[in-house]
Amino acid sequence: MRAMQDNRMPEEISPVIGREAKAEIVDRLYEVALDPIRLEDLLEVWEGRVAPHRTGHSQAVVTLDDPEIEAHLRRATVFLDRFEATRDVNRAQTVLEEIPRSAAFLADGGAGIAGFNRAAGVAFGLKDGAVLADLPFDEEDVALLRTQIARVASGRAERAVTLRIRSTITGSPVIVRVGAVDRVAEADARPLALVISTELVWPEGFEATVQEAFGLTLAEMEIVRGIALGLPVREIAEARGRSPETVRTQLRSILAKTETHSQSELVRVVLGLMDVAQIAPVEMVQPASTSLAVLPVMTLRTAEGRRLEWVEFGDPKGAPVLYMHLDLGLSRWPAPAERAARQRGIRVIVPHRAGFGRSDLHGKGADYTEAVARDYLAVLDHLGITRAAILSQGADFRYACALSLLRPGLVTGILGCAAQLPLRHAAQYDRMDKWQRFILANARYAPKVLPFLVQAGYSLARRLGKEKFFTLVNGGSAADMAAFARPEIREAVLVGSEIALGAKISAHQAFTREALSSEKDWSKLVQAVRVPVLLLQGDQDPQTPVQTVRELMADFPHLEVTFLPDTGQLLLFAEWQVVLDRLGRFLPAR
Fold first, then answer.
1. Pairing verdict, β 411-417 and 533-538
2. Order of strands across the sheet with 58-62?
3. HTH luxR-type domain: which residues (predicted)?
4. Among 29, 305, 443, 579, whose Cα sits 20 to 30 Å from the Cα of 567?
5. What is the pTM assigned to this prediction?
6. By 3-state DSSP, what share of the chain in percent is helix, strand and coil, each rounded to 5?
7. Which of 106-110, 315-319, 511-515, 571-575 has the lowest mean pLDDT?
8. How far is CA 452 from CA 29, 77, 85, 210, 559, in A?
9. Strands (E), 244-318
10. What are the residues facing 115 on neighbouring strands?
11. In the chain, what are the domains?
């Protein structure tokens, strides 16, 4: 009786989140929409507020059920969708983009301008190669500004100087702050000053996005713009031909719709989102491959008309192996492993699951695990394959189980690498490294938030580049870091994952659905499997540690488990010789 109680899922509770904590979470959501690099900050706050935890001697998990946070989440997603931060910049550009809504530029006190942000280009009319004399200020003011820039940049003045200058464009005063910055690049020894002005740029088309995010009327949008630009209610009312009291009434409606509680909070939210609108997206560059062969991508149409893709490598006449590419889209092996598959007479078939590559997503409401299994079956049927072994990774093991049950006699055996099993309690999430826990725990306990978190993660990967992102997420596993440092493994990961995150591909929707599916209880699926199963597990797996595997194996005594030393989630890539050796026992006779 005690053992059964230990295996039960923890009691779920909904927290009462205080206004201060709620404001902190909302701030982080918009910060992530502004810049996905801040996702780790959200991770820290989120885990402290709504993460799974244990209380006393009983287990309890906090589930998010807060309409206000969910409303802000939907709005932040609108901006993350439309203005994904995907650029690769140098140090000077980074300094300027940290303040995208205010006109700012860099200079050393000479005649030229070393760089300027997009807001300065709009507000001051600056073009490439612009000089200080092009600024819309009187000649005397430009001379004064140049003198202060030279003094601050050289260290002869305080690190920050503030000037009041009048714009020749608007006739209004502009406050300019001149501050010292560090050297921009190793090859550039010039001391520079950063000049930030109070000239605020309202991005073209921004109104439509704000209206969509908050459900505002056109009149309300005009008031939001006036408030954000610092105009008092009286001036906004005069400009619109309305009374101040009418504008105040409309402002109360705006605060209710935006779920903000003051003009200052409204301005903070809108200006933060304005930053997003001024970020220019940059497409990812496809990684160069020097040793992996280019594989033709084949396609078919399912009975419901969906497109399915797949590739193959190894021996085209060899024993069929259905390879499952994990939610990271690891569709290729290290070049020596692919050559070895051919030499050993193994035909490796790699369907691109729904939402990966150009395979179409399933319709909403479909049983995800069964739908994926049916897609695998459709590819095998199309190829006329009646017997095949399965090689799966991570939580893909559930698809292998489902396929073996969907068509008895088809699957000759399942070899799972770094497999994930259905988890039982919060302590098993606690043992994961923080990034894996962040995604999977929220898939179970805060599923409404997960799409935003995953999309932000994909945006972060674009911003950092896949190589740096992999290092960030898997840095807790020394074994995975050692494996990724090997050129042939790094190449396989970067090239293979193009079906998940490429120049024009983002599988964040598919990843989200897979994470949600993996955190439902699929124990009965595993227990029903009747084909031979061998799980190769790593002793440094950041997602499924040894202790968790040993706990879960008590529920699945029919599964064979072997631990490989000095391996993690990249077990297949690091120990492919061992994997192919063990796979041999499951291969169908040719």
1. parallel
2. 11-13, 58-62, 53-55
3. 209-274
4. 443
5. 0.66
6. 50, 15, 35
7. 106-110
8. 9, 6, 14, 18, 36
9. 298-301, 307-314
10. 106
11. 2-82 (no CATH), 91-200 (3.30.450.20), 208-277 (1.10.10.10), 298-433+475-586 (3.40.50.1820)
